[in-house]
């Protein structure tokens, strides 16, 4: 088989059993790879709505992309799919690093983990040799300690995927680390691993990935690299990383702070990518497998009270969630807070958003010193922030137990209308740091995201019109470049729909979505041609994008089995009821009428029912998902 290795590896932790399944040829055509085939596997094993995230019958699936392990640029991504601990709905998370390529080199396209071990375990994969091992000497160890031990036991070339103490303790926003500083962080996949008592997956492989037409493949890969080399978005990502955009976003008054009560700070510079470079914190740029951009950062503090502290990043989201959000405008404090999360295995976005809710709850008098174990919470207090994160990751004390459950549970426990300042939507995921009150395509994309309200299922960065490439794309999608502005509601559904499909096929192939939806050197046309050269499976651009639509609808269907309706496609109460604090759109909000207008158009484009948001039987059948429609009919989950 070309492109794919043609094998799905299954490991059952309950029975201690390992087996291999051939990858169906039909799936390569219908779902392409990685995220798409993962969605099909999760549907096959977990569509029964009685299966919850902590049920041993829940599976967790790891998969590199269809062209991961090749010379395709920026194609080292791995998708992780399961029922999420945070929401109880469909969860796809995604990470870079080198682990995915190593799994391909070991000979596998997907790893499906079933069951639940009786004692802490890890999986060792060395080509044909696969075994479940005792993890008693790893359990309780942080991410760095776990990585060191795995390399000591299995060699420096071993690539590890692991959870920290947060995942072991079933902390809902715990993150899966795919190497030290790459994480499939959102939604609680690490809690699923913790429930299965699966500490790590260590992989070493020696099998190359075969290409159907090496010459053609090399030509297209070179074309992609050349386009990325001159793309303005890719150049910025290399120079300053994701946090390089913070000054511009702050000037737009769209950089959320103090739990979304402000959108701008006069002295935001210390928490920017530019500050990391100018102040000497940046020690090197780091690239994932096959990456030509190198957007990741490695930073170290060389003097002062935090001398010797180091961490990967911080990224835009971390500077927002652990910096501007809690009012900590301090480069070094954010580096330290970021590293606490990295070592303990905690999603920095959720950790920051939950912490901001706790701070505001304390300031309002809703949480007391008894609730916070004596911590006097307030904006800008870095030591208290460090202690709060550690408590959350380890379930320490009253505060740790409360925050470890995430905002969906914490707000119900606390009551007193605390949901009104909890930045999550009805699905329950803590929102990432995009000011949706001023970015309307993002608002729609966040609302309909099957895993909850964040940017990592559909990145609509082009709506800002921040580069010539972005403006060109918006003109292509809408017919007029004037719609390359985030403040409009017109054509947002069209923009979101295109980006959904492009995002999905990028991940199915293993590409970093920065290359296709933030930079544009990788696009549906050259992805379709590359896939054909890699596998011999000919697809037009339109046919490849259609596979994206198929997968988006299958992911939607999974949530329908869990009771999701149109009511779940919303945004946080604060953003729907309180206006932006400052700037050109002062007072703007995500109103119900505005969101409903965009949802109606979005559902119509998808051919989904406007009242329930459920896809019609005819829509499923058009997409080749008749079996999905048949199952949902049994559950009475098809619209009339």
Question: How many separate structural domains?
Answer: 3
Instruction: Please identify the top-level CATH class of the largest domain.
Output: Alpha Beta
CATH superfamily caption of the largest domain: Aldehyde ferredoxin oxidoreductase, N-terminal domain
The computed structural class is alpha+beta
Shape: globular
The quaternary organization reads as: single chain
Sheet with the most strands: spatial strand order: 2-1-6-3-4-5
Report the sheet-strand fraction: 5-15%
Which regions have little confidence, pLDDT < 50, spanning 5+ residues?
none
- Total helical elements: 26
Strand tally is: 15
How many angstroms separate the termini? 43 Å
Helix content: 40-55%
The gyration radius over C-alpha positions equals 23 Å
Q: Which fold does the CATH topology of the largest domain refer to?
A: Aldehyde Ferredoxin Oxidoreductase,  A, domain 1
Question: Which architecture of the largest domain would the CATH scheme give at its second level?
Answer: 4-Layer Sandwich
Descriptive overview:
The protein is of the alpha+beta class and 640 residues long. It has three domains: 198 residues, Aldehyde Ferredoxin Oxidoreductase,  A, domain 1 (4-Layer Sandwich), CATH 3.60.9; 181 residues, Aldehyde Ferredoxin Oxidoreductase Protein, subunit A, domain 2, CATH 1.10.569; 176 residues, Orthogonal Bundle (Aldehyde Ferredoxin Oxidoreductase Protein, subunit A, domain 3), CATH 1.10.599.10. It has a six-stranded mixed β-sheet, sandwiched between helices. Helix 2 runs parallel beside helix 22, helix 12 runs parallel beside helix 14 and helix 14 packs across helix 15. It is globular and about 60 Å long. The model has no long low-confidence stretch (mean pLDDT 96).
């Amino acid at each position: 088989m070309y492109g794919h290795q043609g094998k799905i590896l299954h490991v059952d932790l309950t029975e201690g059993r390992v087996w291999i399944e051939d990858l169906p040829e039909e799936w390569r055509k219908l779902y392409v790879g990685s995220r798409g085939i993962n969605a099909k596997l999760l549907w096959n094993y977990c569509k029964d709505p009685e299966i919850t995230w902590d049920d041993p019958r829940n599976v967790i699936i790891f998969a590199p992309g269809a062209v991961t392990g090749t010379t395709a640029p920026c194609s080292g991504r791995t998708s992780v799919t399961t029922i999420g601990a945070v929401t109880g709905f469909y969860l796809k998370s995604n990470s870079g690093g080198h682990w995915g390529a190593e799994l391909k080199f070991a000979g596998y396209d997907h790893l499906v983990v079933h069951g639940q071990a009786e004692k802490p375990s890890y999986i060792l994969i060395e080509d044909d040799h696969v075994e479940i091992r005792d993890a008693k000497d790893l359990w309780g160890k942080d991410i760095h300690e776990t990585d060191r031990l795995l390399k000591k036991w299995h060699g420096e070339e071993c690539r590890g995927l692991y959870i920290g103490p947060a995942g072991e303790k079933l902390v809902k926003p715990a993150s899966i680390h795919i190497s030290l500083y790459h994480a499939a962080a959102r939604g609680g996949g690490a809690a699923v691993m913790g429930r299965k008592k699966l500490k790590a997956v260590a992989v070493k492989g020696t099998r190359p990935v075969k290409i159907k037409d090496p010459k053609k493949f090399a030509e297209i890969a070179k074309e992609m690299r050349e386009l990325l080399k001159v793309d303005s978005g890719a150049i910025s990502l290399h120079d300053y990383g994701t946090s390089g955009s913070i000054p511009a976003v702050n000037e737009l008054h769209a950089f959320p702070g103090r739990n979304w009560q402000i959108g701008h700070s006069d002295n935001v510079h210390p928490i920017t990518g530019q500050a990391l470079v100018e102040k000497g914190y940046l020690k090197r740029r780091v690239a994932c497998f096959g990456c030509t951009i190198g957007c990741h950062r490695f930073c170290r503090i060389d003097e002062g009270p935090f001398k010797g502290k180091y961490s990967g990043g911080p990224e835009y989201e971390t500077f927002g969630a652990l910096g501007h959000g809690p009012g900590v405008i301090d480069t070094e404090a954010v580096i330290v807070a970021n590293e606490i999360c990295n070592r303990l295995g905690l999603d920095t976005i959720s950790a920051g958003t939950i912490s901001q809710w706790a701070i505001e709850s304390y300031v309002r008098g809703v949480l007391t010193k008894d609730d916070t174990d004596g911590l006097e919470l307030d904006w800008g207090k870095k030591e208290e922030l460090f202690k709060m994160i550690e408590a959350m990751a380890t379930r320490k004390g009253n505060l740790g137990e409360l925050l470890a459950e995430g905002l969906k549970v914490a707000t119900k426990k606390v009551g007193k209308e605390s949901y009104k300042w909890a930045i999550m939507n009805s699905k329950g995921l803590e929102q990432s740091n995009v000011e949706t009150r001023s970015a309307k395509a993002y608002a729609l994309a966040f609302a309909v995201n099957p895993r909850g309200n964040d940017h990592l299922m559909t990145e609509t960065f082009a709506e800002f019109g921040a580069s010539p490439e972005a403006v060109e794309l918006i003109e292509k999608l809408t017919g007029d470049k004037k719609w390359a502005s985030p403040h409009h509601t017109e054509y947002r559904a069209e923009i979101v729909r295109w980006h959904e499909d492009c995002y999905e096929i990028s991940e199915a192939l293993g590409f970093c979505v920065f290359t296709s939806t933030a930079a544009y050197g990788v696009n549906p046309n050259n992805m379709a041609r590359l896939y054909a050269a890699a596998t011999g499976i000919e697809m037009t651009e339109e046919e490849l994008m259609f596979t994206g639509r198929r997968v988006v609808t299958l992911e939607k269907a999974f949530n329908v089995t869990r009771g999701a309706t149109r009511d779940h496609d919303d945004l946080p109460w604060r953003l729907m009821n309180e206006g932006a604090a400052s700037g050109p759109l002062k007072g703007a909000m995500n109103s119900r009428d505005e969101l409903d207008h965009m949802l109606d158009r979005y559902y119509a484009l998808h051919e989904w029912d406007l009242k329930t948001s459920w896809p019609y039987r005819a829509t499923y059948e058009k997409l080749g998902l008749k079996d999905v429609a048949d199952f949902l009919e049994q559950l009475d989950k098809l619209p009339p």
